[in-house]
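Lab notebook, page 48
Experiment: co-folding of the full assembly
Goal: obtain a model of how the components sit together before planning crosslinking
Operator: M.T.
Materials (sequences as entered):
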Amino acid sequence: GIQVEQSPPDLILQEGANSTLRCNFSDSVNNLQWFHQNPWGQLINLFYIPSGTKQNGRLSATTVATERYSLLYISSSQTTDSGVYFCAVVNGNQFYFGTGTSLTVIP
Amino acid sequence: KAGVTQTPRYLIKTRGQQVTLSCSPISGHRSVSWYQQTPGQGLQFLFEYFSETQRNKGNFPGRFSGRQFSNSRSEMNVSTLELGDSALYLCASSFLGGTYEQYFGPGTRLTVT
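Observation: model returned without errors.
Model output:
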């Protein structure tokens, strides 16, 4: 099956810093989503981005499907950004989740 | 619109028992997918239901089953519980189907003792 790798696995930032999270996938995909999992386990939709670039406030994402990767940018990080970030891709007829990036933002 | 809801939020069961989890999708969504999240295996797809029919199934034993009702609400059942079934169970709903944009519920945290 498809492999979905995220990097880095762990990230610690000072509040106000910027970061880039990466999602690599081993096969062609039809769709891609980014999620933020909060400390209570809820997965919150960030972007639905099969290709191209989208921005939402301090967050933006870019997917280059032909090169099999997607990037999530977080600017001016805040403590509320802490949590685990997942990308999920569609290959065939189901979603496959990445390994996640655990982000900790320190005040 | 109300989001995806799951009940119960927390559950403690004993090995050998069975459990039923419930998921109510966003109004108008006809697809419900279920996922299991554990520290060791990450997020894994269990199955998807669309208009009361199971469309896709992940690689889980037959002890894991589900169904969907005419109002799109879905239930997931796990029989003969094992310690390894302890996990966060998440359901997601989608308007067009499980390969399109999905919205997740808060999850049910199951502990098997």
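Interpretation: The CA atoms of residues 22 and 75 of chain B lie 4 Å apart.
Next step: discuss with group before ordering constructs.
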